[in-house]
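Query structure, 62 tokens:
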């Protein structure tokens, strides 16, 4: 999550946050769970902090 916050903070002001991640995707079984988590976190941060969502930019940032 820190890497996503760092990427989003360029040109935007982010405040601190506490996050809880709940998932039923098994860890480490090759389902790209880490990439999915990064994009979910990025999407939630854009909503919370009012940043425009651009899927391509966000995917490349992760």
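Result returned for the query:
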């Amino acid at each position: 999550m820190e890497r996503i916050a760092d990427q989003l903070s360029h040109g935007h002001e982010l405040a601190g946050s506490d996050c809880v991640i709940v998932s039923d995707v098994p860890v480490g079984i090759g389902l790209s769970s880490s990439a999915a988590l990064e994009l979910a976190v990025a999407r939630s941060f854009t909503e919370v902090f009012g940043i425009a969502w651009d899927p391509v930019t966000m995917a490349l940032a992760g």
